[in-house]
Specification:
The protein is α/β, with parallel strands linked by helices. The protein contains ten helices and twelve strands. The strands form two sheets. A seven-stranded mixed beta sheet has the order 1-2-3-4-5-6-7. A five-stranded mixed beta sheet has the order 8-9-10-11-12, with no helix packed on it. The radius of gyration is 22 Å and the shape is elongated. It binds zinc ion. The site of zinc ion (ZN) has 6 residues, from loops.
Length: 352
């Protein structure tokens, strides 16, 4: 690979992110997508705070570093995986396809430096999503794959050859012992997905929990596309109940600390407070008066006003603190608003 590949990787990631955002933009702009994008017309956003950025990636597009002792993490600045070197081989945690073959390169590099085996013998799945384990099949058939029982069910129905079903499953708890090392896997209920698992390294002061809290960044679009919003709001409390110093969140270029997680919880709580206040303050009457029998138009405009009321102060407070607060706070506020309305019943009115 040429030194340009890191640049290419970055532009590829930028393109992927743009593609992921397209449906929402298309629906808002009413089909303005027919025009090719141009840097002159695309919106500007606040600069990313340096505190949100991690170490630079190498010429091949990855960074590998020690978390603690023989536990390492790998990132391409957008996705993260981790691995543990042991006397009997390597245990890999997730295999994001965006890191792909760089996973084995990173393992080879560390194994060579430390004179230990570079053979991946076990692969632990955090959850079934393709963007985190779609590189699984690169490790062949001689690897023991481990995942929560619902990961197995979901992967069996998704039938993606890139993501073989786990060989070993657990319902609520599993202790993995490999080469004298120990890792505790646990399921504490549904959150981001039904199968998302807590991966605790008791001898390395580390917790890995993917797609819940992305250190120093706001969540991805619409609250990380979390399937269970109340479960995802509660997950950081469960995470904080574990002893750890280092946090692996599965995304972006840096690890997290406990202080980072407290900051993230404050951000979510501020959105919940804003939504609760907005539901009590924004009057729906003008929207329904204007749109008459077009109930969707009235709902869309009313809820957009609620989102603007709730998210405005939060964006202002967290700009420069959490990266991309101006990009995704509104869509996350909408997801949380709908959960506050539908799961918690706030703002529900019973017809007289
Ligand atoms: Zn996911």
């Amino acid at each position: 690979m040429s030194p340009n590949s890191a640049l290419n990787r970055r532009s590829f990631l930028a393109r992927s992110a743009a593609i992921a955002a397209v449906p929402a933009v298309a629906s808002l702009a009413g089909g303005a997508l027919a025009e090719p994008a141009s840097a002159d017309t695309l919106p500007d956003y606040a600069p990313i705070p340096p505190s949100a950025l991690g170490p630079a990636v190498n010429a091949q597009g990855y960074f590998v570093g020690r978390v603690e002792k023989n536990l390492y993490w790998v990132t391409d600045s957008a996705y993260q995986a981790a691995f543990l070197t042991t006397r009997d081989g390597v245990v890999l945690f997730d295999a994001p396809p965006s890191i792909g073959h760089n996973l084995q390169r990173a393992i080879d590099q560390i194994a060579a430096e430390n004179g230990v085996s570079n053979q991946v013998t076990h692969l632990v799945y955090s959850h079934h999503h393709a963007d985190h384990i779609g590189g699984s099949s690169l490790f062949g058939t001689d690897v023991v794959r481990i995942g929560q029982v619902q990961a197995k069910q979901l992967l069996a129905s998704e039938n993606d050859p890139a993501r073989p079903v786990p060989d070993v499953t657990f319902e609520t708890k599993h202790t993995l012992n490999v080469g004298g090392e120990r890792v505790n896997l646990a399921w504490h209920g549904t959150n981001h997905t039904p199968d998302n698992s807590y991966i605790h390294f008791p001898d390395h002061d580390t917790l890995m929990l993917v797609d819940i809290f992305l250190p120093r960044w706001v969540p991805f679009d619409s609250f990380n596309l979390n399937e269970d919003v109340p479960g995802s709001i509660a997950a950081p409390d469960t995470a904080m109940a574990y002893p750890w110093k280092h946090f692996i969140g599965g995304h972006m270029g840096r690890l997290g600390t406990r202080a980072d997680m407290v900051l993230y919880q404050q951000y979510v709580n501020d959105i919940i407070d804003g939504v609760t206040k907005a539901l009590a303050t924004v009057d729906p009457t003008p929207y329904f008066a204007k749109y008459g029998n077009n109930v969707w138009a009235a709902s869309q405009q009313y809820l957009a006003a609620v989102v603007a009321y709730a998210s405005g102060p939060v964006i202002k407070k967290y700009l420069g603190v959490l990266a991309a607060a101006d990009v995704y706070t509104a869509s996350t506020t909408f997801a949380i608003l709908e959960s506050v309305r539908l799961d918690l019943g706030v703002g529900s009115q019973v017809h007289a």
